[in-house]
Design brief:
Layout: H1 2-19, H2 23-45, H3 60-66, H4 68-73, H5 83-105, H6 109-130, H7 147-165, H8 172-180
Length: 184
Amino acid sequence: MTMIVNLYNGVFSFIERLAGDWLLPTLARFTFAATLLFYFWGSAMTKLGDGFLGFLSPSTGAYAQIFPKTFEAVNYDTSQLGVFHWLVVMAGMYAEFILPALILLGLFTRLAAVGMIGFVIVQSLTDIYGHGATEYGAWFDRASDGVIMDQRLFWITTLVILVLKGAGPISLDRLLANKTGIAR
């Protein structure tokens, strides 16, 4: 039995040394980019208003996505919504563009990942309470397809890795840390 335990420890110690500090954050950024980057950018595109200055004037659909019950209560008339609603919609739209881009580039990755965790939590609460989602799954059940509970736990876990480990060696964070001497 001791021989099996020693073999086990030897093999996985070697793998751990091989992975070092680079594998987990690099894999987390790759996973985020491969699965969520275009999801969030696509969602942000639906919030842009018409024309060249659409980034200053969100679409009607943006209000329906972020404030579904409030927007319905004002009969889908954006002029009845205040500055608060506009600011939240604009912040949501910009967050969906900027935070994933920062993670992709590995720039201010820890802060961007914290922002994305907050965004995913707010998105999930909006889906449940704002849109009345009833199919959100449950943890510790035999089904793995709960869009809100199951999928978003994986999203947040990937982002927590970035918060704790940083962006990894192939990142602008590392480049800045090497140039300025500031810890990453």
